[in-house]
């Protein structure tokens, strides 16, 4: 009598939901996205800095550790800042000077053509929304292809910066910097030295511009540093 063959079902080990390589990869991407989202406020205020690696492509982003945007509470001190006193002002009588000056600290990326502040006295004082130890400055201007004549003649060429605790103070010299008209739209300049001094105001003085224009046009100016608490 022939024996009956007994077939036993093989028991398969049940794999977890993240054992699949594709699912594991998606999980890793999700965790990195969540981490980057949670770190964004810290990067914005310069509390931390990091390099995020995604798909083996490392991208190091330089965060605005202390941008002086109007939306954050920064203001142009119109009473002590320069505004055009020549024919430029006459041609722009329809422009509110205070509104024009505010463009310097508004968030634009890229910079819109013509959205600038023409300076005659070459200086502007900006109140920061919070006392800060300044570490770097950023100056922004048009790209060449945005300019009607394809140049940056109205761009500031050399500028100096001073930090102040009060508007009436003489100010601490932070340095003199060269804006490359052949370079990038936004250029950041690290201070030669920092002594952890705390400032409430920043004075920007344009020494001379890139071309033969009678006045420099200021498009965007930013301050980077560490918050004082």
UniProtKB/TrEMBL annotation:
Residues 1-20 are annotated as: Disordered. One of its GO terms (molecular function) is protein-membrane adaptor activity. InterPro entries: SUN1-5, SUN_dom. Residues 57-228 form the SUN domain. Residues 1-16 have a biased composition (Basic residues). PROSITE patterns: SUN. GO terms for cellular component: nuclear inner membrane. Pfam families: Sad1_UNC (PF07738). It is found in: Nucleus inner membrane. Keywords: Membrane, Transmembrane, Transmembrane helix. This is SUN domain-containing protein 3-like. It comes from Pundamilia nyererei.
């Amino acid at each position: 009598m022939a024996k009956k063959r007994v077939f036993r079902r093989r028991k398969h080990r049940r794999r977890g939901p993240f054992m699949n390589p594709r699912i594991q990869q998606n999980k890793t991407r999700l965790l990195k996205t969540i981490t980057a989202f949670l770190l964004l406020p810290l990067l914005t205020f310069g509390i931390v800095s990091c390099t995020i690696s995604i798909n083996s492509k490392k991208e190091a982003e330089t965060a605005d550790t202390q941008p002086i945007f109007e939306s954050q509470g920064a203001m142009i001190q119109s009473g002590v800042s320069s505004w055009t006193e020549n024919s430029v002002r006459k041609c722009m009588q329809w422009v509110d000077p205070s509104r024009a000056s505010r463009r310097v600290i508004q968030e634009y990326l890229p910079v819109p053509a013509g959205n600038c502040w023409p300076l005659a006295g070459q200086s502007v004082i900006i109140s920061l929304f919070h006392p800060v130890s300044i570490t770097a400055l950023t100056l922004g201007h048009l790209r060449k292809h945005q300019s009607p004549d394809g140049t940056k003649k109205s761009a500031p060429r050399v500028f100096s910066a001073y930090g102040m605790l009060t508007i009436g103070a003489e100010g601490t010299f932070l340095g003199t910097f060269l804006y490359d008209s052949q370079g990038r739209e936004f250029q950041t300049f690290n201070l030669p030295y920092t002594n952890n001094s705390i400032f409430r105001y920043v004075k920007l003085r344009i020494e001379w511009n890139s071309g033969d224009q009678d006045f420099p046009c200021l498009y965007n100016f930013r301050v980077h540093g560490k918050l004082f608490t």
